[in-house]
Amino acid sequence: MGRWEPNARGRLEQAALELYGERGYDTTTVKEIAERAGLTERTFFRHFADKREVLFGGTALQDGLVAALAEVPDDAAPLDAVAVTLEATAGQFDERRELVRRRQAVIAAHAELQERELIKLAAIAAALTGALRDRGTAEPAAGLAAETGVAVFKVAYERWLADPDEHSFAQHLSDAFDALKALT
Prior knowledge:
This protein is mainly alpha-helical. The protein has two domains: about 10-55, Arc Repressor Mutant, subunit A, CATH 1.10.10; about 55-184, Tetracycline Repressor, domain 2. It has helices at about 10-25, 30-35, 40-45, 60-70, 80-90, 90-95, 95-110, 110-135, 140-160, 170-184. Helix 1 (about 10-25) crosses helix 2 (about 30-35), helix 5 runs parallel beside helix 9 (about 140-160) and helix 8 packs across helix 9 (about 140-160).
């Protein structure tokens, strides 16, 4: 190992995606990821529980969404509050579009990773439901707004990844919320 370099977590994520692309997810080991990043396995496990978690970023997105929802004015309708929240965090996706595309390709190729992705989305919906309840939104409105918001997020995310014109994620979210409003 060479001298200390910053951003161990980001380097591990980058190394994992490179190796998953080159060798495949199933055959890549934690040791190989750590070595590619110029780190130790011990450092890997300080940041991630296992090699799956490199793809899922812990609770950073969920925590960011809950924090963003807390900043939305209290008089916003529940679904509008969720829309504003999702759009407020959309920029972080645009900054990492190519990385996100590579990540999603790995996930799409493995059923266990697809399952983990769905679990993460369910946890986000549960966290948003709780945050809406904390704002005074009663059930079932809190759950419906959060679950609907996550469904819109998923549709917008898939469209954003496939967009050859590379419109922003915020634009895809806005379009998906507009489509939902037209549908209902």
